[in-house]
Amino acid sequence: MILPPDNVRQDPNAMTSTQVPADDKGLMTTGAGNPVTNNQTSQTAGYYGPVLLQDFHLIDKTARFDRERIPERVFPDFIHTQKRDPRDNCHNPDMKWDFWAQVPESIHQVMILFSNRGTPDGYRFMHGFSSHTLALVKENGDFVYVKWHFRTNQGIKNLTAQKAAELEGTDADYATRDLFDAIEKGNYPSWTAYIQVFTQEEAMKLKYNPFDITKVVSKKDFPLHEVGRLVLDRNPENYFVETEQAAFSPSHMVPGIAPSPDRMLQGRLFSYPDTHRHRLGANYLQLPINSPLNPVKNHQRDGFMCINNGGRLPNYEPNTLGGPHDSRDHVDSINLELGGRVGHHGYEVTEDDFDQPRALYHLLSAKEQQDLVDNFANDLGSAQLRIQRNFVPVLKRVDSELGKRVEDALKKMNQDY
User: Fold this and answer.
1) Per the structure, how many domains does the chain have?
2) What is the pLDDT of residue 79?
3) CA pair distance 306, 99, nearest whole angstrom
4) The pLDDT value given to residue 76
5) Is residue 272 part of an annotated ligand binding site?
6) How far apart are CA 354 and CA 215, in angstroms?
7) How far apart are CA 232 and CA 288, in angstroms?
8) Nearest to residue 76, comparing CAs of 335, 258, 263?
9) Which pLDDT score, from 0 to 100, does residue 378 have?
10) Among residues 54, 55, 100, which one has the least CA distance to residue 77?
11) Of the chain's two ends, which shows fewer C-beta atoms within 10 Å, N or C?
12) CATH code for the domain of 262
């Protein structure tokens, strides 16, 4: 038996490396104990380049996070703030407001969430958007970037926070039941599909990063082009089989659609299938709800719940014994020239990050602005005063009036503010 040195085992109550006290503020490390160079930005090939597979911390962090819960679909830091406190397992408002105050570039989405748009009157009465920039690519590799929009044909209907809270207590399944009943009655909800189109050259001329999911692309500069219609015309016969086992993934793209260098998208290309493999098993694509319409031919074998295992064909390639081979003429990526330096290219918050949320605030009616102020104050007011004071300046950078109105509301709620 090999024992550790005396200076390590002399204290039987000494903590191991996995028992670091909760208030420790030392340097961050990987699970293997190596220093983490940058926890906020992934390694990319230049500022606009794609994420690199060599970024072990990103892959390890994402893969570990994919396995934290069963069977939830989960994401790292931001989603942690929306979950329960690791100490008492209760929802803690400090977590989300502390995080949002530290990443003010998120304020546009936060404002949408806390406006009445954040509580639609059911799924039928809301638009859908592609957070990510994607690409449409030709057979020769030429491409354009696109943003997808799905605009409801039922019209927009929102709830106030008060009505949403009331429904949460009296009918938590309100939105799901509304959608199910409409389809069951033959009142099929539909959305018209549009795309915004811009070239690589146009993307590089924008004042902001076109692959930043906190930004929207101007419809004035890049108008919507109608391309189709999405109709929901059937309810699932069994919720678990057709919904709970469904495994959507941004990496499952039909030929002609390709990813952009969007960093969040690049991470999701790995994270979604990885989560499905953890949640449903390595052969999740063999489940009827997930299986493709076209025949599957490859050399992947075995694993739990394997239904189609390739028969007697060899499980390697190249070979001289038969079986599928690759399609070298198939285009699955864009002709994007890269010449950037590999590294952690950080993001600096500038006044440009507040232009679009400011425009959103001014677009709201007087009542909608008041609802936004009330919603902010009522939720933010449950966080610690220190965190409240950290977040209000973010609102003031959006609009001084908005920040002042929320601050005044917080002062009325707490004399110690």
Assistant:
1) 1
2) 62
3) 42
4) 58
5) yes
6) 10
7) 19
8) 263
9) 95
10) 100
11) N
12) 2.40.180.10
Distance set, CA 341 to CA 44, 54, 145, 334, 345 (Å) = 8, 14, 23, 20, 9
pLDDT tens track for 348-384: 888 889 999 999 999 999 999 999 999 999 999 999 9
State how far the alpha carbon of 89 is from the alpha carbons of 24, 165, 235, in Å. 21, 22, 35
Cα 159 to Cα 167: distance, rounded to the nearest angstrom: 10
Task: Find the helix packing angle between 161-170 and 366-380, rounded to 10°.
Answer: 60
Query: Does some domain include residue 200?
Result: yes
CA–CA gap between residue 370 and residue 376 (Å, rounded): 10
Peptide bond into 314 cis (omega under 30): no
Query: Residue 384: CB partners within 8 Å, gap ≥ 6?
Result: 94
In a domain, 148, yes or no: yes
CB atoms within 10 A of CB 308: 12
Q: For position 19, what pLDDT does the model report?
A: 41
Helix/strand/coil for 262: coil
- CB within 8 A of 27, min separation 6: which ones? 35, 36
Question: Could you give phi then psi for residue 134, rounded to 5 degrees?
Answer: -115, 180
Does a structural domain hold residue 26?
A: no
Of 247, 214, 256, whose CA–CA distance to 103 is shortest? 214
Residue 187: give the domain boundaries: 35-42+49-281+350-413
**CA–CA separation, 325 and 317 (whole Å):** 7
For residue 86, report the phi and psi dihedrals to the nearest 5 degrees: -65, -15
The structure tokens 């057979």 sit at: 139
Instruction: Report residues of the chain scoring pLDDT below 50.
Output: 1-22, 70-74
- Tell me the two tokens of residue 320: 């001289």
Structure-token pair, residue 392 = 């209000």
How far is 138 from 338, CA to CA, in rounded Å? 19
- CA neighbor of 381 nearest in space, from 370, 368, 371, 391: 391
Q: At what angle do helices 366-380 and 107-114 cross, to 10 degrees?
A: 100
Residue 398: what pLDDT? 97
Q: How far apart are CA 129 and CA 345, in angstroms?
A: 27
Rg (CA), the chain: 25
183 contacts 232 by C-beta, under 8 angstroms: yes
Assign 343 to helix, strand or coil.
Answer: strand
Tokens of 21: 């006290």
Pick the closest to residue 56 from 75, 28, 36, 76 (CA basis). Answer: 36
Query: Residue 24's pLDDT is what?
Result: 56
**Beta-strand runs (E) in 87-162:** 128-129, 134-137, 143-152
Residue 93 is assigned to a structural domain of this protein: yes
Q: Which two tokens stand for residue 32?
A: 């293997």
